[in-house]
Amino acid sequence: MPKNLASFQLSLFKKWSYQAVKTVTRWSLWLGFALLFILNAHEFFSLYIQGRLSPDFLFNSDATYLPLLYRDLLLEGGKLSQWFLTPAPYFFPDWLIYAAARSSVGQDFYAVFIQGLVQVVGISTAVYVIACQTGLSRFKAFLSFGLVLTLFIIGMERGIMVFLYSMMSAFHGGAFLCMLWTTAWFLRFEKKANTSPFELSLFSIFVFLVTLSDKLFFLQVVLPIVSIFLLRAILEKRWDINSLKFPIAATISGAIAAVSLKFVVAQTMEYPLELSVSKLRRNRKALIEYYRIITENNFWVWAPFTLFYLGFIGLLIYSFKKKKINFSKLNNLAAILFVSTSFVLFIELLIVSLPVTDRYLIAVFAGPICLLPIIIVRLCDQYLAKGIGLGLLVLALMSSSFYLVTRTETDKRPLLSAYYPDDVACFDKSLEGTGATHGISAYWDAKKTSALSQTGLRVTSVLYDLTPFRWIMTENWVSVDGYDFVISNSAGDGEPDLKIIEKLNGAPKSKHNCGTKQIWVYNKGALKTSPMENINGTIEWSGCDLKGPIGINAPNCDRLSNPDEQGALVTTPLVTFPAGNYAFEIEYSAIKGDGTEVGSWVIEDVLFEKKSLIAEGQISRPEGQSSILKGEFKTVGRLKSDFVTIKINSNGKSELVVKSVKFIRR
């Protein structure tokens, strides 16, 4: 009996010891990952407020869209209908996250950091849910969560573009976050035999909101998932309605969202999407160069990228040789990412109208970084996973601690409470005491200055000819009463032309220099960007100053057509016309031919290639050598300042000669 009791006690002690070690190990790892997150978040925040995380990139004119949208709509009483937005207005989840962060901290500088942290934690949490859906234990899923979180924060700290994009607003980072959560939802539907109408409705609303906010989501998420469902249905010959609820709901919701944006955003700016094999060579070189730049000396990017895509291609070859495709959850997960990448790269290789840019490739490079830890952990048994987790945890803690201590001790910088770049500070200082608050500049200075100025400057973006550049901006920023100052680098492309400004407004009251930029200051509201902003203002062109698809310039600076030519002889450049009444004069003559009419005229309001007819009429044959056609019109008034042009057409029955065209504001 004593012997049996001693054996029983020893067995019980071993069992308790094993359970204790197991529990301590599990909780140590979970606590370790919590500490790792706190340490990395603290390090991330420390580097952020020291200005080490590429602040010029995080606060450029594109990236300041959400801060300015929040300020205009919620603080200044603006309206969404006045904003000119792209097919990716980033309402969900980007703007919701930013608005919540901004409302909580009351400052853009900290709100940008909070949004980045929330998005990265959201990405890591999605990886945890996906890992659980693929059948991993909670511990292994948590290990995947910790690895992805650590990789993303370390990547952002080192300024690697893929990771920085994932934390930014208005750069398709929200679409990538939603891509991971949609994938998790997809795996959940795969697991369930029947999907409740409520959950399917919730999923449909989610897809609708994300696609409405970013059409790229439909390309890189909805289409790949639908493709995989259809492929599986074809191969397995399974066409029951329950298995197709998910792709049907995703397709319908995404398609409705894609066409609904114009009803939500009054002023939409559609990209002229064109695809052609003619740009294949150019785009291929651009993609290869981008891959070289982003992976050069970045182990955290090229290793997952290379391993995943080579591994998946190898899996495809193996499956085709075996003539059997295994639709396991892990394979489905890899297939979604691979098909998504294929669709995006296909569009990027053939696109004509837009340049190849890295913001469209977040999923291509960040996707493998999220997926590979799940695959690695899945291949490990429970004990090896714990060993790997402990080892990586110790290494990551040591690396993060060493990095934090060395960076903050050897190169101390003052802590920032707001990002205030030198050029914006110079603008503020130069305009201090002048009373100037509303000015114009090129796009890349305008929004950044409006967002970061500490004296309340508002800057409207204009093109070189001073016409408003309505790109991701509100009509509230456009003034028809004049501006106070202009910021320009006369040597730069697309900068406001100072010669045109001086011709319209005369010499400025004062001039200032901020690096390569010049600031010209005028009296309040005295800087005009169009002669039409003044009552009785005029603008006139000689015939030879105007162009058209037909006709030639005569030596005396007339523009004339041949008798057999029919079409637009001249079209005036787009000029901004404030809402109001105008007159026009066309001096012309007609040589040879017969008939009582020699052509026609059309006045149009043009906005982003959308034309609206203002007035039109016929041009009668002059009684003498020349005649002046006079008329009046009123601008449509779609905006504070419309783009107006007049087109003069020849009917091909006479040699029409245009001597001059003139506009007068009444």
Spell out the key features of this protein.
666 residues; alpha+beta; Jelly Rolls; 3 domains; 6-stranded antiparallel sheet; 5-stranded mixed sheet; 19 helices; 17% strand; globular
Q: State the domain count.
A: 3
Number-wise, the strands total 19
The major pleated sheet works out as: 6 strands, antiparallel
Q: Helical element count?
A: 19
User: Structural class per helix/strand content?
Assistant: alpha+beta
Low-pLDDT stretches are none
- Looking at the structure, what is the overall shape? globular
Strand content: 15-25%
N-C termini distance? 116 Å
Supply Rg: 32 Å
Instruction: Determine the mean pLDDT.
Output: 81
Write the layout of secondary structure elements.
Layout (H helix, E strand, L loop, with lengths): L1 H48 L5 H4 L6 H11 L7 E3 L5 H15 L2 H26 L4 H20 L3 H7 L5 H19 L5 H17 L2 H21 L4 H24 L2 E2 L11 H16 L3 H24 L6 H22 L11 H18 L2 H29 L11 H10 L6 E4 L1 H10 L5 E4 L11 E2 L10 E4 L9 H8 L4 E5 L2 E5 L16 E5 L9 E2 L5 E2 L5 E6 L3 E4 L2 E11 L5 E11 L2 E11 L6 E8 L6 E11 L3 E11 L1
Helix pairs in contact: 1-6, 1-16, 4-5, 5-6, 5-8, 6-7, 6-15, 6-16, 8-9, 8-10, 9-11, 10-11, 10-14, 13-15, 14-15
